[in-house]
Amino acid sequence: MQLSTALKHLLDRKTEVERKIGPFQLVRPLGRGGQAPVWLAREIYGNTELRLAAVKLFSFAQSGTEDIGWSKSTSTQQRAQVVDEAKALCRVEHPSIVRFYSMASDPASSVLGVAMEYLPGTSLENRLSEQRSLPIDEILALGATIASALSAVHRAGLVHRDVKPANIVDAGGTFKLIDFGIAWEEPEDAKIVPVLVDDLPLEVSSEERSHIAGAVTFRAERPSAATPSSGPRLHTGTPGYVDPACLRFGEPTTFASDIYALGVVLFECLAGKHPAAVAAGVGGGLRHEVLIGLEKPPILAALVPGLPASLCKLIGTMLDARPSYRPRSADWIAIELERIRGEVAGSKRTLPPESVGPFRGLARFEQDDRDVYFGRSSEIAAGLELLRSHGLVSLVGLSGSGKSSLARAGILPRVRDGALGRGLEGWDVVIVAPGRNPKETILRALAELPDSPFHSQRDGRGRLEPSEVVTALIDRAQRSSRGVPLFVDPFYVLVTTAAPENEASRQWTVELLVALAQASLPGLRALVTARRDLLDPLLGMSGLGKSIVRGTLLVEPMTDATWHEVVHQALQSYGYDFEDEALGEELLEQLRGTAGAMPLVQFALTELWNKRDVSAKRVTRAGLAAIGGISGSLERHAEATVQQLASQGVEAMAGVRLVLLELTTPQGTRTTATRGEITRDDPARARNLRGLEAARLVVDADGGVTLAHDALLVQWQRLRGWLAEVREQRLLAAELERDARRWALDPEGVAPWRKRRLATARDLAAGRAVALSEPAHRFLAAGRKAERRGRALLVSVSLLVATLGAATGGTYVLRVRADNAAAQERAEHESSRASLELSRRVELEKAQSELDGRQSKIDALVAQLSQATDAKTIEDVQRRMKEEQVAAHSAQRRIAAARSPSSPASPPTPVARASATPSGPKVQREE
Q1: CB atoms within 10 A of CB 190
Q2: Do 417 and 454 have their domain in common?
Q3: Angle formed at CA 767 by CA 766 and CA 772, multiple of 5 degrees
Q4: Are residues 385 and 531 in the same domain?
């Protein structure tokens, strides 16, 4: 490899201290990636060595470029491209991608270094040189892992450019992709397409190496459409792994180029030889007709009998010389390899029926949907990596980000397949929804395990301590060699749904999860989902916060680009396509405005699938128009359902409203209720509930029913309006229900409501906004009874005063009246203070909700600002951030005012009486 003068000058220095770029002292060469040397380096600050790193070096000298034929403008352009791509790589997160740390430069020599994680593991190239081929199950795992890693790279808009066995490292049981061929364009006057041959991972003689070099250095047969005037492009890479379209026509490297290279790697792992080497025959070397795509690679099935036909077909399409004929994405390949891996292991899976299709509307993806669950390979890999080393993993994201589907259709099926290691024979997944009594729910679920140590806990009312549960599960794993991943979904209901009388049950659940999180216990893991906006209360639960943070995976909504791939993969899995390319682009254009609202998109795509042309296997423009487009489909469906149920008039609409409100909390989140709690033996309510279930707006959950998805609370304007209308009334109702339960347990210790508070609650009970329970009605009746007793006593006192008036005179009457007035005023003051306290709490919740919303918008704008490149966009984002900050400060002031109210007025002072007033009989008053 020819080095520039600047690089030679840096690397020829004698000592590490002299051989330095930024904080990195270059120790020894590790190899090279494309045209750039890679050195082992120490990252040193002062006298402290932080870590070892692998540093890839680039030269962009302003002078002396004549030795490689580059102009000054070309050098500047190359530097900008390398910097931009290196920055992007530093943002790519995947457990199977080498981590990029930072960039450093040596201004004196115009050398730029990109520092990345140093992996001292064994390369796949070395493994193949020792074993020639690998076991098929390991090859499939490797292929799925690297395809998933490439999917993350491609989603970032990047291309690896040099996928080969030497750049795949087995780092402690995890395969990692290293040495990215960072962007490197050709000089303006380039005439040929040179490709390095020094890294060729095959044993060939020097004469054969020269022959190969001549075979793969081509003049472009036609210019690239992307660069019509600048000639062919200079490609980094290794012969045999470079895309034939790049070699033959000078095409730019693309995502499809990486897919081709991965296909070559998989071919080598299975056959023990490079496909071009197999085609060359006994003579050795690489057959250049295969390298440039003039000749098809050998058929893998003929070389290695007994391979799954689906695997041979997949690799054959990956090796197609025509990029458009290869699989559309690396994510698709990862899913297909996982599917084939299951077939080889004896757990053959099939697609859901076509009538069900690849989309799930408002429902979540489940275990049986794993073969149509696309777009999440990176998150699946990251989740499994966390589960290998953490006892508790938390999937945290906004409502509708796909947390449950990621666990159920992505992570847990792979845990069942043995993705956590080979120490156990299998894993028995336990899925629980905590509900109102989480301890009972968990113990009942554990009692259903095969060979369960909890058979006596089937009623969920056992007295086992959390530590005893953990010990029993570990003993089971050691005895049966089967592990248990406990999946708690959704976890946030511990703070929104768990009944107050079950506080001990909630605390038990928290202690169990903290115990599971202490370490990666043998054969025992816990996985939970949590909404980001409800995370604070969970973090504050006795030791749970640290456990959640240590193993958190942030689940974000899929991007527009990912949805693009998901839609195509989903349709192709059933052999469908769009009516025409324009329709595909039209649909994707609509997705760009709504891709963050995943449930909305899934629902719309489900409706679109139901409108497909079955005979032609096409998704049609007429179908898209019929559902009202992406954004209007969910609300349109919900509105049509409600209008049909409420067709009998206003009373019917009120009935539908009550049913829907029963399935939400006063805070505006979903909750679960039994059918009996909702219908209350009312045929009209029962009919409404059945209609909502038939429309898939309400679904089964934990022995009851709940709203199909949180998206309904956000996307459905009518329901949002209903929730806003009754928010204050429902908060009052929640307080009433709470006091009613306490009063039922201790009638003497809890005083019934009185005066204005009682009157407000009676109005609430008489209205239709909120349905109160029987205990609440009894509590109100007790309040009315107490109030009547008080009035009767007051009348008795008045009669007594009248009787005594003749003896004590008019002054005594005035004194009694004054006392009564003072007592009444004090009672009214207490009632007013309670009402003010309720109003203050409502205002505090409103302000806090607004502040949370403003903060989420500010976070999103900060992320948008970090990616902005032009001044206009930056100015616009900054302006919007300022507006949100002003609004957030206003909400903070309201919160502060609500939390520190002015001192309530003192109770009224009784009317002063003249000292000369004759004393009369004392009257006992009821306060």
Answers
A1: 19
A2: yes
A3: 75
A4: yes
